[in-house]
Every structure is written in C-alpha cells, then in structure tokens.
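Anyone opening a protein record will find just a pair of labelled lines. With that in mind, the following record should read easily:
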Amino acid sequence: MATKLPKVPVVIAGMGWSGGIIAAELTKAGIKVVGLERGKGRSTADYYMAHDELRYAQRNEMMQDLSKETITFRHNTKERSLPMRTYGSFLLGDGLGGSGSHWNGQTYRFLPYDFEIKSKTIERYGAKKIPEGMTLQDWGITYDELEPYFDKFEKMAGIAGDQEQNPMVGKRSNPFPLPPMKKTPIMKMFEEAAKKLGYHPYTIPSANLTDIYKNPDGIERAACQYCAFCERFGCEYGAKADPVVTVIPVAQNTGNLEVRTYSNVTRIIHDGKKASGVVYVNTLTGEEFEQPADVVILASYVFNNVRILLNSKLGKPYDPVAGTGVIGRNYAYQVQAGKAIGFYDDKEFNTFMGAGALGTIFDDFNGDNFDHSDLNFLHGGGIRVAQTGARPIASNSVPKGTKSWGKEFKSTSIKYANSVITVSTQGANLPYKHHFLDLDPVYKDAYGMPLLRITYDFEDQDRELTKFLAEKAGEVLKEMGPSKMQVSGELGPYDITPYQSTHNTGGVVMGTDPSISAVNRYSQMWDAENVFVVGASSFTHNSGYNPTGTVGALSYLAAEGILKYLQKGGSLV
C-alpha cells in the first residue's frame, strides 16, 4: 500500500535537461515543484580527478543498472524479444542530470526542413517520394516559431560556435554566446579539404565553454580544459553544460524545488481525463509513495516516458497493424555506419587530447539541402571530423588486414595511435509503421512492472543514405592526403551489441492531429490536459543532428505552456 503524501502544485519525473529546465522556469515564477529522480544525487565534486576510463567508459559508472531495469529488443514482430543485459548500442543514464551529465556537448538546432518534413517533401518531390510504410509527419511547429527557445537554451548553456551565419542551417536571431572551440590541425585539414570541394564547413557548436561565462540566470562556469573526458564522464571543471551545474541550482536557489533522489516513478494516477499524481518507489528501501499533484510532468528519457504512460494506461497504445494509437508510435534511432578512416605514416596529431564537442562539420548533404530527385532516400546527415580524445583502452584503430590480436596488432595500434583521422557521418532516421515501442508481455523489472520493448531494424532508406554519405566522406578524406584509407558504407541489419549513439527518439510524438500525435506543441497530452511529456520522445523522426539542442528548446517552450496552464487551465491550443 502506497503512502500518500501531501499534494503539491507540480511533480516532475526525471531531473535531466527537460526536468531541470522546467523546474528552473517554474520555480523562478514562484511555483512549488517536487522533482523525482530515480538515481543518486550528483555534484561537480564527484568528478574531481575522475579520469578513469575503465570505471566510467568501460564499466558505465553513470549508467542505469540493467539487472534491475532494461529494455527488450527484436527486429520485427516475428522475432522473440530478449532483454538487453549488457550495454551496447546506446547508454541509459542514471542519477541527477541524467544523460545531460555524461553527454559530449555537441549542440545543434534541427533544420527548418525537419519540423515540416512531410509538407516540404511533398511540396518539392510529390507524395510518391515518401516510401510505403514510412509514417512521416510534421511536428505542428515551425523552426521560426521555435527559434527563440533555441536561443534561450544556448544562452543558458553557454554554447560556443562560429559567429558567421552558416547558409546551410536555420537563421539565428542572435550570435552564439561564446566564440568557437580551438581549431586543431585535424580540423584545419578537414576544413580546407571540404572548402576545396565546394562545401560549407563550420566548427561544431559546443556546450563545452570556450571562456569563463556567466549566463542570464547568474550561473558562472569555467572554460574547457580539453581533457578529452566528456562522453560517459561528468565534467570536473563544470565547463560542460550539465543540468547539475546550470538549471537545477537555479531552481534550488529559489527555495521552491525539492529534489528527491532514489525515487523511481512507476505510474501516473488518473481518471482517464486528468491526472491526480504519480506513484514512485524508493529504490533504496522498496517503499512505495503516492505523490498527488495538480500538474504531472514526464521529463525522463525516451524509453521511460513511453513506459510510464503504457504502464499507467494513459493514452492509446500504438497498434502497428491497424496504424492506430499514439503511445509508442514513430520510434526512431540514428544512422552512423558510414565513415572514412585515414592512416598517416608521416604525421601525428595528439588525438589523445580533445573535447566532446571539438570538431568541424558541414551540412551540404543534411536535410533537404541537396536535390533528392534521383536518390533512393530522403533527408541526409552531417559529415564531420571530431577530436573527442582517443583514450587508450578503446582506441585501437588499425588498417584492414591487420590481425586483431597479438604482436602485429599491438605494434600497429601503437604506430597509428596518434596518426588516424576518421571522417564520420551521422544520418537522419525516419519513422516506419513497423518501428514502435510497447510493453514486453514476458519480461519485468525489479518491481514487477513490464519492460519496454523495441521493435526496430534498419531499412533500405538507411542503407542508401549510409552509402551516399560514406562516399562523400571518402572524397573529403582523400583530399586530406592519408597514406592509406578505407571507406565503410555498408549497413547490415541493426545490431544492438556495439555502441552507436544514445539518440533514441519518438514514442510520444508532437503534432496537431490527436489521431497521430500524443502531445501538442507545448508537450501537453491530448488525452490528459494536466500531463506534459517532454523530451526527445516528442520527435516525429530523428534528424541528422544530435538531439539535445532541440530537446532544450522544446523544454523551454513546454515550461512556458505549463505556466499558462497553471494560470488558466484547459488545452493550450
């Protein structure tokens, strides 16, 4: 029997970027908020001198315990789903700050094309260009409408970037708060080669500060030291934008936020029209609590947002056969298989140094920036070189044909340890009717709740996109003059075993039509007006970019909507 607690105005499940941003905006307006985080608390002090690749990068110190809660996976409905018991394709963060504490810091805005992808595709190519089974849909909001919220996120986080407007992306109302990161020799080589081929390279926008910075909320942070311990690590300097060092302290300083760690939300209490609160479990004691609230906000990771709704029986579950229902619809991942690797016998680049967002990219083949008329795919991706830091355990790039063990492998690994350049690609992933999320009928978590099941595989769309981008990456690398090079553009079936990216999206998608979307532009549920579901679960597809900048913008817009709802109630659109 759950212990019922006193009612609060707002309860938030998940205290990462979305939860932290919303908590900051609501508490500054005088609203009392309870933030529930299933993991432990964190502070910058936890990461002092914690450059331990084995502990954090290999043993996943900051990630969810898969023995207690995981996902199950299958390629299609004919396969048996099985639990993911060891980390591979993606990493599920755990603890205060969530994935916002262990990310790399690459911060992009989705393209104007992304938000109106179906309309703009049909307008340019006709409806027949969209393959059968692809459930492409507009977001119900335009880039121009979301631009002020991108700007607000970037100012809060202190995003560093090139001040000249890049013609390949959406227009900006203001320059980046800080100048770009330093250009390494690798970045300069890539930039020169790309420009020689007629492309438009620019420095990757970075949440790793390039100078001391004080944001509009008065939070001051130090500059990046280029230590190369970003992805899978917390930042010991506070230089990497993280909810724990940006928005959460702002909310706590108002006196209006109570954060409860080790508090795992399992379901929403509702009557089919409105929610009255949530139920959560104290993960240390096993005690169950009911937290009544006027407004319930799901701001957890994609999978958890969907799982809580399905376990709560809130919103109509998606049916892939009929194509009806919305919770679990339009799951998408990211396509990152295409790349070109160059080995240099006469150059060294100090690749052990770097930062999570240190790199250069161009978007000439991203979105609809190029003509797809004679191509067998839609959208595209970025082509980039990044110097995130080649840590010793996981960095063993060797040319094809080298033995994968023994003396030859060791000597070749040492030879090329600082003499390898990878030109990588990151492509969009578009939704299909048969890619979805639902509850597994067999497997349960430590609390007896069904696990979330992923049904997903790569399509011909993804294979054609990968091949195309890999060829372009190879052309750029060739201009960079490696001693030997190899291009990888083949994409097989989706394999959940090797790490690819943590860029999962969809399942509670945004739109204007309740029959194909779960939330409106303010992330307010159509089926429960006082429930807001915020994060990458809102994306109707995944772009060729990392998702965090767009998550941040949508979170600020959601916060604005929640404040309006608290004042007036009812549907916001």
Observations:
- The chain has one domain: 3-50+62-568.
- The chain has a mean pLDDT of 96.
